[in-house]
């Protein structure tokens, strides 16, 4: 009975998005409206003016400030009941819609399309709509989508953008990941059709939804709440718990490395205006996830390598690295599929971090999860005051990918053996000696050099005064991949 209800809700949503009646050809919930001659897009402007009159009567928008629940491992669903009336057709109208870019060629099954046809997405990538911002505070890749960077619909291929989005996500969705969506800047000229949103939701299969651990909707408006209500019949409650409204940028700091986020300037300016309007600027000006002042002499996280060495009896290898790697250096861990790809319970991660910082003993056996020390190791590297590859080498590593194959090995050796500070070199060698063992078991753990590069690259290097981007992350990962493949040659003095 439950399955039947779900099928009915899914077919109802398809009918509402297409503006027509249920198709008599199929009763499957998996069928997607494919006849674009009967597709309709509501006459809806994304500035939300058409929704305000409808929504204000059903919800108190001023009080709809969902907060992160620190006592829960899962993000609480921000979506309220009774958001809008159920008669979407009457509310939205039924103006016909047929996007010019959704032709028959674009409707092919993705699995049947040759890979080389999709290799070059430079025409879409140039807008910078999708960026990669390293890892969040729990060791998960962060993917940023900025609505303000969407170009005018008149010059934009929505179907191709969907394929580019999937192409980008495919590089990361085998591991746990986080999405950040900056909603500000979406308007009537660059809006994505609701039919496109439905196509996108259907295109993203189980692996995309399962490994997505958090979806932050930044600066939500009435339209975001409306879209949730529209799609709610086919969205599972489990997925809904991953969604979080973020009304102000500072709310992201406790979960993400805020200074590494690719936040567009218009979004930053919009946030300042919101804070000024609500008189919260004083409250948030001193709210930061990181601190430059160590709390304990034994502190391991968010301090320089030199500080750890000074308070570690001169041992340059930090305690947290020694204990995590020692725990993972065994057949069970090394043969665990997806090691370093998966996240861990956020409360446990925070608890273990605190134990290390306070100099207290940590027994990973107590947590029963091999991914806890794996996440702790990545988090430690990411939260160093300066990346282990140093800010000084950033520009040269950015240019490394353009070198010829003959030039790369001597340049890499020079950077690692001669340009890295001695302490950083010892930490890097200690880490890469262990990662070589992980690669040796890649037939079982599925963690090849390229997969490990994607996981560790953004934790080894980031810019001092620039936000992360897909462009920079790609170059960092390339350099990391090269180090992993040639570690026996590079880390030998």
Automatic annotation (TrEMBL):
GO cellular component: cytoplasm
Domain of life: Eukaryota
GO molecular function: GTPase activator activity
Domain CRAL-TRIO residue range list: 120-275
Pfam families: CRAL_TRIO_2, RhoGAP
UniProt region (Disordered), positions on chain: 1-44, 56-78, 92-120
Gene Ontology annotations of biological process type: negative regulation of endocytic recycling; small GTPase-mediated signal transduction
Lineage: Eukaryota, Metazoa, Ecdysozoa, Arthropoda, Chelicerata
Composition skew (Low complexity), residue ranges: 18-35
Composition bias, Basic and acidic residues: 1-17, 56-68
Residue stretches making up the Rho-GAP domain: 303-491
Record-given protein name: Rho GTPase-activating protein 1
CDD domains (UniProt xref): SEC14
Compositional bias ranges of the Acidic residues kind: 101-120
């Amino acid at each position: 009975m439950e399955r039947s209800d779900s099928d009915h809700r899914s077919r109802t949503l398809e009918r509402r998005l297409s503006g027509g009646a249920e198709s008599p050809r199929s009763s499957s919930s998996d069928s997607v409206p494919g006849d674009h001659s009967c597709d309709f897009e509501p006459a809806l402007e994304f500035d939300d003016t058409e929704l305000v009159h409808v929504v204000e009567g059903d919800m108190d928008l001023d009080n709809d400030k969902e907060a992160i629940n620190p006592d829960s491992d899962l993000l609480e669903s921000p979506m309220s009941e009774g958001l809008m009336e159920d008669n979407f057709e009457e509310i939205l109208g039924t103006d016909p819609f047929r996007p010019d870019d959704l032709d028959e060629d674009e409707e092919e099954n993705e699995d049947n399309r040759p890979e080389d046809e999709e290799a070059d997405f430079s025409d879409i990538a140039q807008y910078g709509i999708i960026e990669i911002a390293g890892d969040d505070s729990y060791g998960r890749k962060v993917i940023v989508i900025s609505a303000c960077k969407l170009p005018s619909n008149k010059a934009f291929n929505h179907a191709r953008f969907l394929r580019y989005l999937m192409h980008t996500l495919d590089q990361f969705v085998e591991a746990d990941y986080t999405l950040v969506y900056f909603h500000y800047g979406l308007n009537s000229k660059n809006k994505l059709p609701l039919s496109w949103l439905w196509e996108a939701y259907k295109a993203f299969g189980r692996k995309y939804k399962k490994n997505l651990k958090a979806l932050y909707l930044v600066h939500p408006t009435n339209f975001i709440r409306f879209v949730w209500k529209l799609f709610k019949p086919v969205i599972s409650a489990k997925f809904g718990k991953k969604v979080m409204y973020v009304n102000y940028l500072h709310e992201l700091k406790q979960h993400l490395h805020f200074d590494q986020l690719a936040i567009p300037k218009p979004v930053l300016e919009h946030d300042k205006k919101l804070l000024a309007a609500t008189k919260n600027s004083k409250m948030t000006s001193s709210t930061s996830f990181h601190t430059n002042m160590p709390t304990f002499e034994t502190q391991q996280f968010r301090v320089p390598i030199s500080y750890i060495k000074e308070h570690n009896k001169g041992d340059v290898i930090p305690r947290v690295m020694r204990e995590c790697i020692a725990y993972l250096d065994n057949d069970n861990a090394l043969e665990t599929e997806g090691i370093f790809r998966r996240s861990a319970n956020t409360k446990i991660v925070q608890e273990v971090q605190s134990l290390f910082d306070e100099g207290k003993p940590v027994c990973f056996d107590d947590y029963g999860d091999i991914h806890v020390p794996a996440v702790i190791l990545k988090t430690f590297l990411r939260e160093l005051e300066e990346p282990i590859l140093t800010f000084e080498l950033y520009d040269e590593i950015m240019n490394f990918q353009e070198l010829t194959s003959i030039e790369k090995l001597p340049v890499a050796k020079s950077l690692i053996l001669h340009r890295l500070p001695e302490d950083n070199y010892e930490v890097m060698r200690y880490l890469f000696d262990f990662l070589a063992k992980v690669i040796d078991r890649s037939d079982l753990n599925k963690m090849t050099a390229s997969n490990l590069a994607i996981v560790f690259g953004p934790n080894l290097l980031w810019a001092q005064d620039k936000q992360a981007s897909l462009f920079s992350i790609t170059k960092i990962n390339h350099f990391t991949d090269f180090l992993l493949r040639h570690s026996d040659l590079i880390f030998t003095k």
